[in-house]
Specification:
With about 350 residues, the protein is mainly α. The chain has two domains: about 1-200, no CATH class; about 205-360, no CATH class. It has helices at about 5-10, 15-45, 70-80, 85, 95-125, 135-160, 170-195, 205-235, 265-270, 270-295, 300-325, 330-360. Helix 7 (about 170-195) packs parallel to helix 12 (about 330-360). The longest helix has about 35 residues, at about 15-45.
């Protein structure tokens, strides 16, 4: 037997259903924007060495900061037990501690706010019968991924509270990767809903279908490049070898993959990690240039052609930001823009895939 919300949905006129799909799409785009902000805020937290300032995780009761001097003293005393205080910030004052505490607090608060902005409208839409049964599992899946992301964040922070005042580059990259996964899946899903719940994707011309497949593969390469950037950040690898295109005076340094076993160098050796990120980034730019050239020989709609230009512009800007960040030895402003540029580039590729699928 159908429940009340299902009957409500089935009795809606097609135009009403399409309007509801668009409202849900707009809501998801707002959540995506907040997730993008969260990714950038996480990078800023890392760059300012603020991420280990909160040594406890209170998922339910952590909405409020310390509200008086006694509360600040208690939080600061907890921080004094951490490796970061003893090895890096020994002797800092409470006021100096507040400078790193607030950014991490805002980072965690923003994550909780994203959860509310997702959960509360979802409940309202469901009760009103606006959610197609076919998309409900995907929305629940997004919420579960978001909850896992909160746990992953604490799992990452814990790695910097034991012996060394640095989080594990593996956990940091996993935390970043899960955020990017949630963002990418949700953007794609929100774009799909612009067409309504019942839209059927048109048949694609062979050349357009081929270009679309290559763009999908490109999106995977961009995600891999972003993950390699996570290892660069986790190892502070951007603070060394600050020349380009040469690295340690050579195009291909001699001591690459010099670890034992050799493959561990891809994750733990600063030189190899930075070199891999460079190669992936440059390869991405070259492939984008080739795909853009391919698109010029294909009969595309105005939106499709414009989307390819967006990809090219975003890629050039991202490479420029990356090189500038390296040459200037990772200034916070440029490094933050570089992380944001990665999200912009991925977004343009997802949009290009969408236009290839739906525009005629």
């Amino acid at each position: 037997m159908k429940n009340h919300s299902e009957n409500q949905f089935d009795n809606q006129a097609p135009d009403t259903r399409k309007n509801h799909a668009r409202i849900i799409s707009n809501w998801l785009f707002m959540v995506c924007a907040m997730i993008a902000g969260m990714i950038v805020l996480g990078g800023l937290t890392r760059l300012t060495n603020s991420g280990l300032s909160m040594v406890h995780w209170h998922p339910v009761t952590g909405w409020l900061p310390p509200l008086n001097d006694a509360a600040w003293a208690a939080v600061f005393d907890s921080y004094k037990q951490s490796p970061e205080y003893n090895d890096v910030n020994f002797g800092m004052s409470v006021d100096e501690f507040k400078g790193i505490f607030w950014l991490e607090f805002i980072h965690r608060l923003w994550g909780r706010t994203i959860g509310l902005v997702f959960f509360l409208p979802f409940i309202v839409f469901a009760l009103r019968g606006w959610i197609d049964r076919r998309i409900a599992p995907s929305l629940v899946f997004f919420f579960v991924l978001g909850a896992l992301q909160g746990g992953m964040g604490w799992f990452m922070v814990k790695s910097g509270l034991v012996d060394q005042p640095d989080v594990s580059q593996y956990r940091l990259t996993a935390h970043l990767g899960l955020a990017v996964l949630i963002y990418a899946l949700m953007v794609r899903f929100a774009l799909r809903l612009r067409r309504g719940f019942d839209a059927v994707r048109p048949m694609l011309q062979d050349e357009v279908a081929s270009l679309r497949k290559r763009l999908v593969l490109l999106s995977y390469l961009v995600v891999i490049t972003i993950l390699s950037g996570g290892f660069v950040a986790g190892l502070d690898a951007g603070f060394t070898y600050n020349t380009f295109p040469l690295m340690d005076g050579q195009l291909i340094p001699e001591l690459l993959y010099d670890g034992e076993p050799f493959y561990i160098s891809a994750f733990e050796d600063i030189m190899t990690v930075q070199f891999n990120h460079r190669v992936l980034a440059i390869s991405t730019l070259i492939i984008i240039a080739l795909l853009w050239g391919m698109s010029m020989a294909v009969s595309l709609s105005q939106n499709q052609r414009r989307s390819m230009i967006f990809v090219v512009v975003a890629a050039v800007m991202q490479i420029a930001l990356g090189i500038s960040t390296l040459l200037l030895v990772v200034p916070v402003s440029l490094a933050t823009l570089h992380q944001f540029g990665a999200i912009v580039l991925l977004s343009t590729i997802i949009y290009a895939i969408y236009t290839m699928e739906w525009d005629r």
